[in-house]
Amino acid sequence: MHSKSLWAVLLAGGSGTRFWPASRRALPKQFLPIGGTRSLLATTAARLRGLVPWERTLVVTAREQVALVRKHLRKLPPDQILAEPAARNTAAAVAWAATEIERRDPGSVHAVLPSDHTIAPAADFRKALRAAAEEAEASGALLTFGIRPTFAATGYGWIEVGSPTSERRGESVSSVVRFVEKPDRPRAEAFLAGGRHLWNSGMFVWRTDAILRALREHAPALAEAFANARDASALDRVYAGLPSVSIDVAVLERSKDVRVIPARFRWNDVGSWSALAEVLDADGDGNLAAGGVQVLAEEAQGCTAWGRKGELTVLFGVRDLVVVRAGKATLVCPRERSQELKTIVDRLAKDGPSFL
Questions:
Q1: Is the CB of residue 259 less than 8 Å from the CB of residue 142?
Q2: Range list for CATH 3.90.550.10 in the chain
Q3: Listed residue (333, 327, 343, 278) closest to 305, CA to CA
Q4: pLDDT digit string, tens, across residues 108-131
Q5: Pairing mode, if any, of strands 6-11 and 158-168?
Q6: In CATH terms, is domain 3-268 a member of 3.40.630.30?
Q7: The whole model's pTM is what?
Q8: Stretch 212-222: mean pLDDT, rounded?
Q9: Residue 16: its pLDDT value, please?
Q10: pLDDT tens for residues 10-33?
Q11: Among 9, 77, 335, 341, which is most exposed with the fewest C-beta within 10 angstroms?
């Protein structure tokens, strides 16, 4: 296929709290420079350059985050931003974006990409994306990327891989037997040992008419909701009645022709402060500096520090800590417990909402 027919939909509406206090309601994770010097959203968009132009890139975000999107993606035309009046998970975002793309460019193919993941090398990702787009255009199947598991994850969805169907640009394509959402530990360990399962990356590629047809079949209310919603007041009415459901549950788990490409690129959803150790370089003692902060470490090992450029964090005689300074809030916790921050966020929602 020629790349001019390929669109990209960047999902940028999350309110992520797993990176509190750097991530807030007013500044979610996708707008932070977690994997480098640019925000995750800007890095996601940059990976598409040379394959998908700005005028074929849509960003679905929350209405209150439009200004942030424009700040981080200055070359994105304003009419390429779809501003949701309420959070309704990924199915609504996919349905609206697909309806809009079909209106603007019938017969196209598009990718749906979360904007808060780290992926490298970018060239390998573009190669896989081209392969998926060609397979989607030729077959009409719904494509996803699977990640080869490295541990028995209970926080990810898994994909059971079926028989090979084709090969595109050196990338193998196989059928999907089923999706399994966040299995318990014994089941995840069995998946890992069996070798027939991949992690669900949450990235998808399909012909626009194919996903709209699948929505009409499996989620007709979503398919019909956006047909005539052309202004803000109409969108308000539409979103008020929509269910909050993922595209995986609404469509993919019910569709008969879903295919998967095992990713060759490195992928990380950077789900907690401890995950930074997997995407950033550490010093000789395993200490990490992120967000631009300068770190002075003395007799310190295995720590992660976050702060702004021009700030200094001193780590002295400590180990395996997360130390985050953001605005008027400071977090200090054991690195292995950084995935438990929801407990603190829930407490702040009641006792200290100004810090969210």
A1: yes
A2: 3-268
A3: 333
A4: 999 999 999 999 999 999 999 999
A5: unpaired
A6: no
A7: 0.94
A8: 95
A9: 66
A10: 999 877 678 999 998 889 999 999
A11: 77
